Every structure is written in C-alpha cells, then in structure tokens.
Amino acid sequence: MTRYIFITGGVVSSLGKGLLSAALGTLLQARGYSVRLRKLDPYLNVDPGTMSPYQHGEVYVTDDGAETDLDLGHYERFTGVASQSTDNVTSGRIYQQILTKERRGEYLGATVQVIPHVTDAIKDFALAHTEGIDFVLCEIGGTVGDIESLPFMEAIRQLGTELGPARSCFIHLTLVPYIKAAGELKTKPTQHSVKELRGIGISPNILVCRSEHHIPVSERHKIALFCNVAKSAVIQALDVASIYEVPIAYHAEGLDDEVLKVFGLPAESPVDLSRWRDIVKKLKNPEGEVKIAIVGKYTGLKDAYKSLSEALVHGGIANGVRVKIDWIEAEVFEQEDAINRLEDVHGILVPGGFGQRGTEGKIEAARFAREKFVPYFGICLGMQLAVVEAARNMAGLDGAGSTEFGKPRVPVIGLLTEWATEAGIEIREEEMDLGGTMRLGAYPAELVPGSRVHDIYGCDRISERHRHRYEVNVSYQTALEKAGLKFSGMSPDSRLPEIIELPDHPWYIGVQFHPELKSKPFEPHPLFASFIAAALRQSRLV
Ligand code: GLN
C-alpha cells in the first residue's frame, strides 16, 4: 500500500521544506521503507529550464532529461533515489496539458475550470508512477496563503479525503521567531499559518517549527493546543551546522516516529543512522583544508551552484578534508594581473554556464591552471572553454571560439543538432523554442583505456547527465590531440567529445556533462573525490 505525505510551508519561505522532505525520506528508508519524493511548484513557468539561476537557483537535471527544481537534487543526494521527470510539476505544465487537451476538443464541450480540471490534473500527477512504493512525499512549493498555490492546496485536501487517514499525512513547516527585545519566542505566526491552512480545509497532522532557539515544552504544548495537533506532533527544528546533520536532528526530535504514528505503523523498529553520523563526523573533524576557486558567473547566489558546492563537500568527505570555496566572478580576470588571485588556490573549477559574459576570464583561468600546473576541473562550459584555450594557445588556432558567442574564425565549439540516443537520432533545430533545444539527461560515454578518467572511474563506459546546446567540434580532434590535449571520453559513435584531459599535468580534466548532479555524501562522485585528492597534493606544494 502506497502512503502519501504532503509537505507544506507557512509564515515565510526558505525554511528548508526541501531539506525536511529529503531528511524524512532518508529516515523512512532507514526504517526499511521505499520512498519517492516529488515537488509540486505553483509558478507558471512550464519548467525551471528557462528561469534565471539568480532567481531560482540551479536547474537540476534528471536521467530522463527533465529540467527540474533544485530540491530534487536534495532529494537525490539524501535518499540516493534517482529523480525522474514525473517527480516535478509546475502550474505552467499542468495548464499546458489542459489547454492542449482543450484545443483538441477532448473535454467534449465542457467548461474547463480550476476545479475540477486543474485539481484533477494535480492529483493525477501526485498519484502516477508510484506502484510498489511505500511512501510518496509530495512537497508543495511556496507558502500557504499564496494565491497561486491554492489549486495545489485544494488538490491535496481532496487527496487527503480520498486516500483516507490511513494513507495520507499532512506536515506543515513554520517559523517560531525569537523577538530579541522581548526575549521571547513567538508562536502566533505558526497559529496564523495553521489557521490559514485549516481555512483551506487541511488540518496538519504534524507541525515542524523552525527556530533559532530551543522551543520549551510549554510553548510546544501551547502550539499543539491552539493548532489542534497532538503534543508530540510539534517538532522543533533548530539550526544545524551542516545540512547532513538534518536527518539526525529530525530523528532525535521524533519526526519519523510521529509520521509512523499518524499511519498507525509500528515505530519501534531500529533505525540505523550510522551513515549520517559518519558523514557528520568527517565534516566536523577534517584533517586539512583545500582551497578551490570556482570561476563562474552567478557567484553572488550560491544556490545557482548548489549541486556543485555539495559535490565539492563530498569530495572533501572522501579525502577527509574541508573544502573552502573561493567564489570568483570570471569577469575579474579580464583585467590585467587579476589572475594572480589564483596563486594560492589548490584547484580551479570552471562550472557550467550560458552566455558570453565572463568567458574570456574563464579562458584566462583555464590557461593559468594549465601553465602553472594547478588542478583544473572544467564542467560543461568549463570544458568547452578549456578546449578553446588549448586551441588558441597550444594548437596555435588563432581565432578559436564557440559559436555560442558569435561567429569565430575557428569554431572549435559549435552547435550540433543531432544526437544519437538509445531511441535513434534526435534532431533539434536552431530556431526551436529555448526550452527543449538542449541535449538533456543521461547519455553514455566510452572512456579511453590508459587515460586518467578511465583510471578514476575504473570502468570503460559511463553514463552522465547533460544540459547544453553546444559541443566540442570533433573535426578539430586531430589538431588538438597533436598539440597535447587528449580526448579521453567519447560518445559511443565517436562523434561527440565527452571528456578531455592533459596527460602532462597533475590534474586537468574537462567534462561535457554535469557529474555534480550524481554525487552523494555517502557516495562522492569519483571525479570530485579525485579532484580534491589532487588539490590536496597541490596544497602540500604551495
Ligand atoms: N552554454 C554551453 C552550451 O549550451 C554550456 C552549457 C552548460 O555549461 N551547461 O553548450
């Protein structure tokens, strides 16, 4: 029997609903249950693919090629369950489906309305593809009281009734602020938020209260009384030093016990959280520190590189060291002498990105790493620009560049509109809508025996997730290889370069895909583990 847990938020955003969902998912797994986590986003974009990382943070890509909310990254990092396109939906996508059906006349002349058509589509989404799963956790984006989230609230209210209390549970995350002048914690915002939720017809079973200070039992009982929940169902969520402490902290507060209680399931089964305790122990007792420069474009908003910074933390866990990130706006390297700022870092990472701004600065950073033998990790755009740098300065191809930024004389990076997929050739056209013109999702790559990446992965064939329009132009492979740049990973048909490396360098690797999307704290991605190991060696040299 599949049970559904609906997670809503109140009072303010950014309380950590995604982490609450991810942590609860892993706690239920630790009890032996299977889980699937989903995010229902009320905004009107069809998916986050075309949204600015400044506004919305990173776009997380699934194996099956969906561009999704970054919370799906948390889900996957915590539970190890690979997310799918069926795990994230937006109002925009729901409306798109409904309006397409309406145009085709599939509603047979009926008036198409928010209730029941939109709410039915939301319910169908929540329930679909969940066969055999013990718990489905559905996080509703936004905050209770938002106009745009109303259809979602109504849909989950209906689901609560239809599934019945034995198969549904509502968790509401709120804030209990501390008012310094009064020296008091305030429960009123939580009371109001629950009142709002009850006004929509949803009575939460469990309240999770974020607070900077310990919430005394008397205050929790007050919340329970006013909000009509069991006393034990008011769970405090205090700030913790690392996100990987969150599952341990929630377990200590009894969250998973309370969820099982709601479903009438036994809570006495043992819970093994040693995996999380080990991770936290390693994070708290590092045996050294490495400094990595991330030379990017959206460095002002750390959420824009969420999976990347987490994957670096995982690389640190694998090596028992702390990874200190120096976020650098690439544009600074377009000024003379600024490059010296990289002198004391132990590794340079140029992440994925779109658009021309800062690209010449990133090329300078790649050149610095190559010439000064500093470990370099280029991801997606970071690989493409390393190839441009090698073309210009190693192979002597003056005017080498990417067609993403105009018409270079030597287009070493260009648009490729056909990809071989398992299902055959996929064709995209240049003029297509921006959403949906990219090579997205998991594609295989074959690793060249004897290469560094072959050694790092320890296998011949890998599968990694992609999100890009442009490709390294394979017709320059011979010229670049002659100059010393090795093509060490290729698509199975040898048309798409997937990995490049410099053999005569301590660690210089560029990958066309996004390995950070698959890294987990308990299973650091081999490339990140190896990059941090190289940075550690570098730290002993400088
Ligand atoms: N802008 C580049 C492309 O579209 C790289 C994309 C990326 O780094 N994700 O190919």
Describe this structure as you would to a colleague.
By secondary structure, the protein is of the alpha/beta class. Helices cover 35% and strands 23% of the residues. The protein has 17 helices and 25 strands. Strand 3 (60-61) and strand 4 form a beta hairpin. The longest helix is centred in the last third of the chain and has 16 residues, at 526-541. The chain is globular and about 75 Å long. The N and C termini lie far apart (58 Å).
Q: Would you summarize the structure shown here?
A:
The protein is 35% helix and 23% strand. The chain is an alpha/beta fold and 542 residues long.
Could you report the average pLDDT, rounded to the nearest whole number?
93
The main pleated sheet reads as: 9 strands, mixed
* Secondary structure: number of strands: 25
Radius of gyration (Å)? 25 Å
Q: How would you write the strand order of the largest sheet?
A: 13-12-14-15-25-24-23-20-21
Shape: globular
Keywords summarizing the entry:
binds glutamine; alpha/beta; 25 strands; 17 helices; 7-stranded parallel β-sheet; 9-stranded mixed β-sheet; 542 residues; globular
Helices and strands, with pairings:
Blueprint: E1 3-9, H1 17-30, E2 35-41, H2 53-56, E3 60-61, E4 67-68, H3 71-79, E5 88-90, H4 91-103, H5 114-127, E6 135-140, H6 150-163, E7 168-175, E8 178-179, E9 184-185, H7 188-200, E10 206-211, H8 217-227, E11 234-238, H9 246-252, H10 255-262, H11 274-284, E12 289-296, H12 306-319, E13 322-329, E14 347-350, H13 359-372, E15 376-379, H14 381-393, E16 400-402, E17 410-415, E18 418-421, E19 424-427, E20 439-447, H15 452-457, E21 461-468, E22 470-472, H16 477-483, E23 486-490, E24 497-501, E25 508-511, H17 526-541
Helix pairs in contact: 1-3, 1-9, 5-6, 12-17, 13-14
Bound molecules: glutamine (GLN).
